[in-house]
Design a protein that fits this description.
The complex is a heterodimer of chains A (658) and B (149). Chain A is of the alpha/beta class and 658 residues long. In chain A, 38% of the residues lie in helices and 23% in strands. Chain B is an all-alpha fold and 149 residues long. Classes of the chains: A alpha/beta (658), B mainly alpha (149).
């Protein structure tokens, strides 16, 4: 190994003194002084941004046609390495600076090839920030370059260049760049580490967005490893988005086009689900809150679909974006110079000119698809018209369900229709329905003998009553929805048609009555509770589970979420309200057991009774939840906007007096 | 249609009148709490400031929750229907029109009472409201021409 002809003089703290270094340190120090300004946060997010910056640089090499393989290794010492087989970053002495170009790229704030001025720099957050940020915020960094049959290496500590070496290697044709770094604990603290799942998910996205490149991740800490590679690009991406949904157009619509320097690519496929899943990207960066480009997509879809679907004199009126987006899976990727992002979230594009380009490119491609009299196009248009009809019907139905005085007959009618539709995918419509632990929590409260006669009221698919198999002698179900009764017939001994308000059973017919997540939908909960008391024998037991707020702090917030999800929602019980209600209805010996369960909110709200606007409003309630709510009510919002909520279930047991 | 009769009846209900009043009160409290927080911070009382800030966050959930119901009945200010953007723009414009007149009147009253600074303040706000009116009415025209896009 030979050392650089001009080794840097360093003092004890690693700072150099020569003239060149003054420039070098100004960049590095600016970043170290205000790291959040450059990478968004000094938490786990910021740390991952450093790694992604390196990966994205390598992807740029791929896009330039010089690199095929990118390898990420998460090392046991908390460092990580990104290696590519591209051209290798230049290491020759820079003509003006008289330093290796690589060193300039790693130490000079304004040196990045992608750098386009302050606006781009800040608005893009970390992307395009160049290697200097990675270097400045690393405890140490090792650069290796294979280029022109020379193996070049250089070490840095907290951004300060150190040992540099050039090793001629006449026999090897290897080329590429490898950077290994350990995020600086002085900046990021000691508690964060690289997440294999998070990085692998990002590499997977990049593989789809950059068809042909191979992205490999190896985790030395846990022995995990995955290779991400796609030849199908966005089409494969959208197919994977929709993999658990029933699709309408088997072959996704693929669009690609450019206006000036802006390149737009999209793959679009409708499904029978309700929620839309739009994955949007700007220069390969995920924009989880959408923005101008997604507006362009929506505008193009709305214009083209209205042109092809609207019959003359159609009394139903305009097809709205919500009708068109229902059940839509789409991946939209835009490459544009100088994109502007929302200053707060940085996950939303705010470049109006991009909206116009996206709209124009997609309108061309979509017009082609819909003008063709294909079976696919016909099915998509039928799907959209279905959504429009359902929206208008839901409006007619939902308004009185919300606003008429507590009309039991009307509520039952809506209930019957709604749960008839929902019976089709009932058990997949949320997590809680089939959660074994939640069901067990009900069964564990059971205190009647093995010969007991049990009634499951509002039994739905009979899953609650079914879980008492072996614990009771005979299980009867009761429900008003024919589709649900058919499902329950497979789990219970007998299923009857009927409403919980007026049950056709004799007094004292059952030892046990069970139900779950029903009372919040019943306008007059005292009446069913009294009916239940009537059909129970003296000493008989009622067991039911109900989601409740954690307390006063989240009650109003939770009301709004549940009401937007389910228009029939009319009672937001606090845990103690229900206890009191049971007492007032004549029950005794009330016991409560709490069970906390993570619910997948995106799944839960993907249902026909939740309007598209309400889905958006529910998400906003989570994103903007007050501190007081966050303190008592655990929920998580993933970087891609997906929400998990830790619901508080209370399971009640109460007795009819002897 | 059933839904229309229901919302008409509801509009006349005591409950909706109550909701309208509570909507106004809670919206006022939201703004006051933000200001109280700022004052508390100025006085070196960060704990009180934090409390008011958190209360303001909760207030926003409540105020918007009232509107969840009210928007089904109509705009609390103009009584016009709310819902999709076309309707919302119409209601907003009616609200701005009405308050524009109120400002003129209030300003003249203030002048008559010798409260010239307040009179001038009301003139200034009226100027700002004219801008609001112009913006909304432009958006409304665009929305009628192109469906809001």
């Amino acid at each position: 190994m030979e050392f650089s002809a001009q080794p840097h003089r360093t003092d004890a703290s690693g700072h150099t003194y020569d003239e060149q270094s003054v420039v070098v340190l100004s960049g590095v120090e600016a970043i170290r002084k205000r790291p959040s300004m450059y990478i968004g946060s000094t938490g786990a997010e910021g740390m991952h941004h450093l790694l992604f910056e390196l990966v994205e640089n390598a992807v740029d090499e791929f896009l330039a046609g010089h690199c095929r393989n990118i390898r990420v290794v998460l090392h046991a010492d908390g460092s990580c390495a990104v290696t590519d087989d591209g051209r290798g970053i230049p290491v020759a002495l820079h003509p003006r600076e008289n330093r290796p170009t690589a060193e300039i790229l790693l130490t000079d704030l304004h040196s990045g090839g992608k750098f386009k001025g302050d606006a781009y720099y800040l608005s893009g957050g970390v992307h395009g920030l160049g290697l200097t940020c990675v270097n400045a915020l690393s405890e140490w960094l090792t650069l290796q370059v294979w280029r022109d049959r020379v193996h070049y290496s250089q070490e840095f500590r907290r951004g300060v260049p150190g040992r540099e070496a050039r090793e001629p290697d006449a026999t090897s044709s290897r080329r590429g760049t490898s950077i290994r770094f350990r995020p600086d604990r002085e900046i990021f603290g000691g508690e964060h580490e690289f997440s294999y799942e998070k990085i692998s998910a990002r590499l997977r996205e990049l593989a789809y967005l950059n068809s042909g490149v191979t992205l490999l991740i190896e985790d030395e800490r846990g022995g995990l490893g995955t290779e991400h590679h796609s030849t199908s690009g966005l089409v494969g991406f959208v197919e994977s988005v929709n993999r658990n949904r029933a699709v309408i157009n088997q072959e996704p619509i693929y669009c690609r086009g450019a206006r000036g320097e802006t390149v737009v690519e999209a793959a679009i496929q409708w499904t029978t689900s309700y929620a839309e899943e739009i994955y949007s990207f700007v220069n390969s960066v995920r924009t989880s809150r959408g923005g101008s480009h997604v507006e362009g997509l929506t505008r193009a879809l709305t214009a083209v679909v209205n042109r092809h679907a609207a019959a003359p004199g159609d009394a139903l009126g305009e097809i709205t974006p919500a009708d068109i987006l229902e059940g839509l899976g789409a991946v939209l990727s835009v490459r544009a110079a100088g994109p502007q992002f929302d200053s707060q979230a940085k996950s939303r594009l705010v470049s109006p000119e991009v909206a116009d380009v996206v709209e124009s490119v997609l309108a061309d491609a979509l017009s082609g698809f819909f003008a063709e009299p294909s079976e696919s196009a016909r099915r998509v248009l039928a799907r959209v018209l279905d959504a429009q009809h359902a929206r208008l019907a839901a409006r007619r139905m939902a308004a009185p369900s919300r606003y008429s005085p507590q009309d039991v007959a009307r509520s039952l009618e809506i209930y019957r229709k709604q749960f008839g539709i929902r019976s089709k995918n009932w058990h997949d419509s949320c997590r809680w329905l089939t959660d074994d632990h939640l069901l067990s929590a009900h069964v564990e409260m059971c205190a009647v003998g093995p010969q007991a006669r049990m009634l499951d009221v509002c039994c739905g698919s009979g899953i609650v009553g079914g879980s008492f198999a072996g614990r009771v002698g005979y299980r009867v179900g009761l429900d008003i929805t024919p589709e649900m009764r058919a499902l329950a017939g497979t789990r219970l001994d007998e299923v009857r048609e009927g409403s919980v308000y007026e049950m056709s059973f004799e007094d004292n017919s059952f030892d046990l009555v069970v139900t779950r997540e029903v009372l919040h939908l019943l306008p007059q909960p005292r009446r069913p509770l009294s009916e239940i008391l009537r059909v129970l024998r003296p000493g008989g037991q009622l067991i039911f589970g109900q989601t409740v707020p954690y307390g006063e702090a989240d009650a109003a917030w939770m009301f709004r979420i549940f009401k937007k999800k389910q228009p029939l929602f009319c009672n937001n019980f606090l845990a103690e309200d229900l206890e009191q209600l049971l007492g007032e209805c004549g029950f005794r010996n009330v016991e409560i057991r709490e069970y906390l369960q993570w619910e997948d909110i995106d799944l839960w709200i993907d249902t026909h009774e939740t309007s598209a606007l309400h889905r958006q409003e529910i998400r906003e309630l989570y994103y903007n939840a007050p501190e007081d709510v966050r303190e008592v009510h655990p929920f998580e919002v993933a970087p891609d906007g997906k929400i998990k909520d830790r619901w508080r279930w209370c399971i009640y047991s109460a007795r009819k007096p002897e | 249609m059933l839904s229309e009769t229901t919302s008409l009846e509801l509009k006349e209900s005591r409950t909706v009148k109550n909701l309208i009043e509570l909507f106004a009160r809670e919206a006022q409290a939201l703004i006051c709490y933000r200001r109280f927080a700022s004052t508390a911070r100025h006085e070196g009382l960060p704990a009180v400031a934090e409390m008011f800030e958190r209360l303001a966050q909760n207030q926003a959930v409540l105020v918007e929750g009232h509107l969840d119901f009210l928007r089904m009945v109509g705009d609390p200010l103009s009584g016009l229907p709310l819902g999709h953007t076309g309707a919302n723009l119409g209601a907003a414009l009616a609200g701005e029109d009405a308050s524009g007149d109120l400002y003129q009147l209030a300003s003249r009253t203030a002048e008559g009472e010798g409260l010239v600074d307040i009179a001038s303040w009301l003139q200034s706000t009226a100027a700002s409201k004219r801008l609001h009116r112009q913006r909304i009415s432009e958006a409304l025209t665009r929305s009628q021409e192109t469906g809001g896009r």
